[in-house]
């Protein structure tokens, strides 16, 4: 496992500041190995699986090397508009402290707006091959001064038949450019592109797949709405018998936020991440080993120093960037011949990534229903009665016999029930709603794409109202709603998908007509 810090990589201060604010502590392997080579000016092929932080690898490098000019210096191609938008959103985060400007172009959106955007002067263009070619034909997009060419998800590009478009675009870019390809696999088509369009000394960086999870660890997951994640975490903690638990988050910020919220709800929890001093980390780890802290919230970097054989459970509050980190997390439990359990709390869009980890690590993940209020009640009463039995066994209750005798016989049951209620309330930290939460089962929903977003004055409540009133569907059939600047995604029950497409397509939301499609699986 890499122990390199981002600050040890040759990134600009502006990019490092953005990465720090994003909460990342340490680079993934593809980031660690590719960033120095890209910044040296090498042509590279980065071979690593989806979800390993490739966008930050090339994005952080480009944004560190470039200066604002007002003309296009870099072109980034991606196979789908959805991926292009994701890259663009990531660039906005990574480049927030730079003076560089970038835009995203793709089909299915107003080309006039994209033309106006490019004419204002952009340093970086992110887009799909078809729309980039269209803008080139219209003499709007000139690639004559491009210094950097990036092809992301290159194998997907080839699978989707973009090879001729890619070659046409590459032939218009100056030969002295730097070419960067990222791909999960290495098919012959990519080798052909490399031999034809990349410098002879190009570097092939391959992050190998390896490791399997322990057979001693049972692995489960819950598919939840994003705004339910914290409550689901509390339901897991309250509904199960857990001795010693590590809860993993992706960033330092998440660790601090979740720790603060759990402490606010009276859970026995402490945090551990890279911003803490060595002495503070050692003190926290010692308390965890001694059983004085039941729940430890940690980042992947901090968890490398955790060597505790008695960890009974691992919970992934956020999935890691790559499968190797997942394996490392799960390896914190099920040690020294003990049995362990691991739970992942994911949104519907993360199911595909989790299934990919399942295949790579030769594991089996079981999808579970979110713990109900009955599950929580039964577990807490079980714990309460166990503690009562312990007091009785140690004969610590004898001095209260006289008090019990004074309670009228007809009130004894009421008093006992009231005492149980009072004790039960002290054992449950979260103020649960009266309803049981329903998971978004990964096999029962469709993800719909709407071409309207925040810029069109669409928010979650308007989207919900639109689907219920115009779509004529029940609120219970609507799952996670994600509103972006120019578009939105909504998870809906498969049974109502066609109804929404029939009733809502070309109808107005916030005063503007909306187009709806079933989103690409990616």
UniProtKB/TrEMBL annotation:
Protein's UniProt keywords contain Ribosomal protein: no
Superkingdom per UniProt: Bacteria
Pfam families tied to this protein: DbpA, DEAD, Helicase_C
Similarity field: Belongs to the DEAD box helicase family.
Every Helicase ATP-binding domain range: 35-204
Keywords: ATP-binding, Helicase, Hydrolase, Nucleotide-binding
Signal peptide positions (record): none
Cross-referenced SMART domains: DEXDc, HELICc
Residue ranges annotated as motif Q motif: 4-32
Name under which the protein is recorded: ATP-dependent RNA helicase
GO terms of molecular function: ATP binding; hydrolase activity; nucleic acid binding; RNA helicase activity
GO CC terms, sorted: cytosol
Species, as recorded: Kandleria vitulina DSM 20405
Record domain Helicase C-terminal: where: 232-376
Annotated DEAD-box RNA helicase Q domain residues: 4-32
């Amino acid at each position: 496992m890499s122990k390199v810090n981002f600050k040890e990589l040759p990134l600009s201060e502006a990019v490092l500041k953005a990465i720090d604010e994003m909460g990342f502590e340490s680079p993934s392997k593809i980031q660690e190995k590719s960033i120095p080579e890209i910044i040296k000016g090498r042509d590279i092929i980065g071979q690593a699986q989806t979800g390993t932080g490739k966008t930050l690898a090339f994005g952080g490098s480009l944004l560190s090397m470039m200066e604002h000019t007002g003309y296009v210096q870099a072109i980034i191609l991606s196979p789908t508009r959805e991926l292009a938008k994701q890259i663009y959103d990531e660039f906005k985060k990574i480049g927030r402290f730079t003076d560089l400007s970038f835009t995203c172009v793709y089909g299915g959106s107003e080309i006039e707006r994209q033309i106006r955007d490019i004419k204002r002067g952009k340093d970086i263009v992110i887009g799909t091959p078809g729309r980039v070619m269209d803008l080139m034909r219209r003499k709007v997009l000139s690639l004559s001064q491009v210094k950097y060419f990036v092809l992301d998800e290159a194998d997907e590009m080839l699978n989707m038949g973009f090879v001729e478009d890619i070659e046409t675009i590459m032939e218009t870019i100056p030969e002295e450019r730097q070419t960067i390809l990222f791909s999960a696999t290495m098919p012959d088509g990519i080798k052909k592109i490399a031999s034809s369009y990349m410098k002879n000394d190009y570097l092939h960086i391959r992050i190998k797949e390896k490791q399997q999870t322990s057979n001693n660890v049972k692995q489960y997951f819950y598919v939840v709405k994003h705004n339910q994640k914290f409550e689901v975490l509390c339901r897991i903690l309250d509904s199960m018998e857990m001795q010693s638990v590590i809860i993993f988050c992706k960033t330092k910020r998440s660790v601090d936020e979740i720790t603060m919220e759990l402490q606010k709800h009276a859970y026995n929890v402490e945090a551990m991440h890279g911003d803490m001093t060595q002495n503070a980390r050692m003190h926290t780890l010692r308390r965890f080993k001694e059983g004085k802290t039941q729940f430890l919230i940690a980042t992947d970097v901090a968890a490398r120093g955790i060597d505790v054989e008695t960890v009974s459970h691992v919970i992934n509050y956020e999935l890691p960037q790559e499968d190797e980190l997942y394996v490392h997390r799960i390896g914190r439990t099920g040690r020294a011949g003990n049995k362990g359990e691991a739970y992942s709390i994911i949104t519907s869009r993360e199911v595909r990534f989790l299934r990919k980890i399942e295949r790579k690590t030769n594991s089996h993940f079981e999808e579970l229903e979110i713990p109900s209020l009955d599950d929580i009640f039964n577990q807490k009463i079980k714990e309460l009665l166990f503690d009562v039995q312990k007091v009785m066994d140690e004969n610590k209750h004898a001095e209260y016999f006289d008090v019990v005798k004074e309670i009228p016989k007809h009130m004894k049951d009421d008093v006992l029930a009231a005492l149980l209620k009072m004790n039960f309330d002290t054992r449950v930290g979260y103020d649960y709603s009266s309803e049981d939460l329903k998971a978004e089962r990964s096999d029962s929903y469709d993800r719909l794409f709407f071409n309207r977003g925040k810029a069109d004055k669409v928010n979650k409540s308007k989207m919900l109202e639109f689907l219920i009133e115009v779509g004529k569907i029940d609120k219970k059939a609507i799952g996670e709603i994600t509103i972006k600047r120019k578009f939105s995604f909504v998870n809906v029950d498969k049974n109502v998908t066609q109804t929404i497409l029939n009733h809502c397509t070309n109808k107005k939301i916030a005063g503007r007509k909306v187009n709806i499609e079933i989103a690409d699986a990616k």
